[in-house]
Amino acid sequence: xxxxxxxxxxxxxxxxxxxxxxxxxxxxxxxxxxxxxxxxxxxxxxxxxxxxxxxxxxxxxxxxxxxxxxxxxxxxxxxxxxxxxxxxxxxxxxxxxxxxxxxxxxxxxxxxxxxxxxxxxxxxxxxxxxxxxxxxxxxxxxxxxxxxxxxxxxxxxxxxxxxxxxxxxxxxxxxxxxxxxxxxxxxxxxxxxxxxxxxxxxxxxxxxxxxxxxxxxxxxxxxxxxxxxxxxxxxxxxxxxxxxxxxxxxxxxxxxxxxxxxxxxxxxxxxxxxxxxxxxxxxxxxxxxxxxxxxxxxxxxxxxxxxxxxxxxxxxxxxxxxxxxxxxxxxxxxxxxxxxxxxxxxxxxxxxxxxxxxxxxxxxxxxxxxxxxxxxxxxxxxxxxxxxxxxxxxxxxxxxxxxxxxxxxxxxxxxxxxxxxxxxxxxxxxxxxxx
Length: 435
Ligand SMILES: Cc1ncc(COP(=O)(O)O)c(C=O)c1O
Known about the structure:
It is built from 13 helices and 15 strands. The chain is α/β, with parallel strands linked by helices. It folds into two domains: 5-48 and 303-424, Aspartate Aminotransferase, domain 1; 53-285, Type I PLP-dependent aspartate aminotransferase-like (Major domain) (Aspartate Aminotransferase, domain 2). Strand 7, helix 7 and strand 8 form a beta-alpha-beta unit. The mean pLDDT is 96. Residues 102-104, 130, 132, 179, 183, 210, 212-213, 233, 244 line the site of pyridoxal-5'-phosphate.
């Protein structure tokens, strides 16, 4: 491993190639038949072939997993296996899982159960939250007449300082809601310390965590960060769209919520979710364990999963390092004239691979259009968007072009992106010269 923690560790060429082949459409847009670099994975990640193929295979079956014919029983086993795999992902032995159409719907359900039922006169959240958690927590708090306390972000790290959150928590806090990693800056919050310190102030504090952006970049571990609710979105984690997943601790799962009366108190599933989605989750875990198995021999699925996510994280860090610093042949983002890297915190071990940049002479939306002309798909975060404005304000930036590659990308992909970026910067300069 590189001695400089910032440099991460690339997969070797052979593994990188194998990984790329396991994903659909990494280099190509099959609708317009053009080459492209898909660097908008924070919006929806490239799809793992095995997850989507398995989804299709299972979804072709009409059988009801609650019935007793052979194939139905097999589907029930598929679902049970996925429940075990969710325990692997979260590293939990107890608690309940819930699913809905989106991670946002899951978040609203989890926030509601806690805020409507747990005493306390205030709720604590951060300004860096996605609207799904911020708005759910604030709406239910308002309905209950609870004070809303908001921790501002740190514009240097791109995250939220532990102290900023903890100072807002007291014995009257009903719930603390905190994002794991920002979908704007990629900053990973120190959830372990936040949970520990918040529970020093209030030992039985309920804590909600949105792990949607962190889950595809590193392993979470609820043994170390025992929160009461945590969600993720399989479609941002190499799987299909159409499901959001949440974990509820044992005590949170028992709080009053929508459920069929005859079901047990910790049951959150309503109706018949598609077994295909569960099968896809198992394929995601299989895939991460397959990477883990390249570096570690173990019979323990969680151990392989953690190793796989660690390797994904290290590879992405190495790509991030290259994107920022470039090479002798290609200038990195930090060096390209007229390009600014926002929230460019030096310690890359605290950042998931999501980057916010801006051009001196191109506005964010224009830059996204120009990138697409160069075959690069990225996304703009602008003040006019309800999905961005609060985060941009707390991070003290006026907007950003968000760049979010995935571990199936390679150094070559990063270099192509840097060449395109340099061209965009010169386009901006040329436009200024023409005026
Ligand atoms: C951090 C974060 N949380 C929650 C969500 C909501 O996910 P979904 O669209 O599945 O509701 C997103 C989506 O972009 C996100 O980035």
